[in-house]
Amino acid sequence: MDSIEIVLAMLLAVVASAYLVRVLPVALPLPLVQIGLGAAIAGYTGHGVQLDPGLFFLLFLPPLLFLDGWRIPKSGLFRDKGIILELAFGLVIFTVLGAGFLIHWLIPAMPLPVAFALAAIVSPTDPVAVGSIASRAPIPKRLMHILEGESLLNDASGLVCFRFAVAAAMTGTFSLTQASLTFVWLVVGGIAAGVGVTLLVTWVQRWLFRHFGEPSGSPILVNLLIPFGAYLAAEHTHASGILAAVSAGVTMSYVELSGQVMAATRIQRSAVWDTMQFALNGVMFVLLGEQLPDILHGARVSLDQSGHLNPWWLVLYAFAISFGLLALRFIWVWTTLRITLYRKDRRGEEAARPPLRLLLATSLAGVRGAITLAGVMTLPLTLPSGAPFPARDLTIFLASTVILISLVLASVALPRLLAGMHFPEEPAEQKEEDLARREAASAAIAAIERAQMEQLQSGADSDMYPEAAARVIALYQHRLDTTAAIDDEDVARFRKLDAAERALRLAALQAERRTIFSLARHEHISDEISRKLVREIDLVEARHK
């Protein structure tokens, strides 16, 4: 019962955190509030949750990474693939080497392999934390896509470096050849597992639906199970389960383009995934908060054993490592940018030079999160000789404080750093949207005309269909007129007209909904009719928002 009560308390804390960030007079990122509530739960119960890292990875990471891979804009991901790969792999190795030597220099009592392990586990950025910070800072869309792509891929490289650093600490040996081969297999095997499982499951599902029909709720449940299947398949072959979950999500986004899923299923599935994302994201940070009291106690013991009696040394180490990571990230971003600009100049291409504030923002946005916490918890308790693993508690504490400092620093500095900067809209995105609207409207008009002819030939009411077709076609013709090739002044006018029309439609829909609820409260209509009509209104409103 205690475990069940703690789980319920964590879920209630997630719900409460969503309201607290709106009520608090100071703007705080949601993860920080959730960490604070988790620490409060641990303080009230007297103990935190015993976190099993393997179970944590299996329950939390596959669905969240799958969803991020599914929803990340693919055009931006492939357009900036070079930059993303530089950050996801090159920056991680650069961080492990630079931060590893820095940590060993700061804390000589910590062996160099353990220092590298700590540097490796704090090198990956967290997509959940990045998204939370971005919601409160005016980060340009393209930079946000780069940060999301980086955080989806650098988990694998960081965890691989962490694994080999721990192995070196345990055995005292390190093989660069073995590490390189293992890394290649982790990447290739993980991506192959994610793509293969997704394609296989969707093919089997479609075959069953064609022959036996589609049971209610079954497609959504199968969709929820895909990331777990991909993760486990990769882990059983000793590949990267994290990359398997990400590649499964990316593959799912292409599978969806077939359009074979029913509209009602898509709407229900989106609501289920949004709820799961909110709950899992929140519980991860609440769990981090619950670990803090035990982590702090263990770090104090480790500090005493190293000869430092003053606990302020812990704070000094944490801030020195955090700012060292920030400096290493800025150096990498600045250097790779200069190289890219130099190459473009050599080719005669014109390239815009981003302002220094944007480079600093890119460095600050490297926020650490749950993957760092879960990874560092996998540190072994003892060496093969039976001796305690050196500086284990101190390593866990420093990794946890790096998470907190990066969250606080980004949430405080990013909005102020980017305030007042103007980021132009992506013209390509607007052109693509206008093209899609025109093509869809033209196809819809053609389909209406064909359906009208079929109905007339079948002997249906001949006087009804022409009038109905004219009314529906008029809606699509309006869309064609407003997205036609016209000058900028007319485009702006039509945009304002669309905005005005949207506001009026939303006001009308809200009035409809209030009326239906009132009729149901006074028992003029049944609850079933009320739910049906309100759902229709909700779907129309979602289209206009």
TrEMBL record:
The chain crosses the membrane at residues 6-24, 31-49, 55-72, 84-107, 183-204, 271-292, 312-337, 358-382, 394-414. Coiled coil: none annotated. Residues 12-419 form the Cation/H+ exchanger transmembrane domain. One of its GO terms (cellular component) is plasma membrane. GO terms for molecular function: potassium:proton antiporter activity; sodium:proton antiporter activity. It is found in: Cell inner membrane; Cell membrane. It is a multi-pass membrane protein. It comes from the Bacteria. One of its GO terms (biological process) is regulation of intracellular pH. Keywords: Antiport, Cell inner membrane, Cell membrane, Ion transport, Membrane, Sodium, Sodium transport, Transmembrane, Transmembrane helix, Transport. NCBIfam families: a_cpa1. Na(+)/H(+) antiporter that extrudes sodium in exchange for external protons. Belongs to the monovalent cation:proton antiporter 1 (CPA1) transporter (TC 2.A.36) family. This is CPA1 family monovalent cation:H+ antiporter.
